[in-house]
Amino acid sequence: MADPILKVALRALASGTVAGITTAATAAAAGKREDNSYAAPINATSHIVWGDKAAAQDAPSLKYTLTGFLLNHASAVFWAMFYEKLFGRRRRVPGASDSLVRPLLGAAAVSAGAYLTDYYLVPKRFTPGYEKRLSGQSMTAIYGMLALGLVAYDLFDAAHPRRKAT
At 165, is the pLDDT very low, low, confident or very high (cuts 50, 70, 90)? Predict the structure, then answer.
């Protein structure tokens, strides 16, 4: 059997990737709607590396957009580690309840924890930066999509159970 930490890390890489893509897509759509720029909110995330100048960038670029996307992705995988370790449905033991309540509530709790950490615990330099370009309503959607992205594999697994080999 593989190392349990490695198994959690691989699951977190998968669910974190889904969460990273869903949050980036949500931020980009909100940026287009609110600021007429898909790239602006993603660029703003790169303020962690490039300073506040990044938040003023509207055009897509390798420097700002790629950096912002990668930072967002890394953050999503980080939060997915907590989700997978504490709430992931794929870690259930045979015979345990197949309820989705725990994973759904867990994903919501991890997303809320991410928001609190991002905007109340870390220095401003390390906030996601979305707040520099997007409304509170869009921020809520982004963190909602973080939760949905974290739990997506568990929802898919519940809808498409694997058949046991006979």
Answer: very low
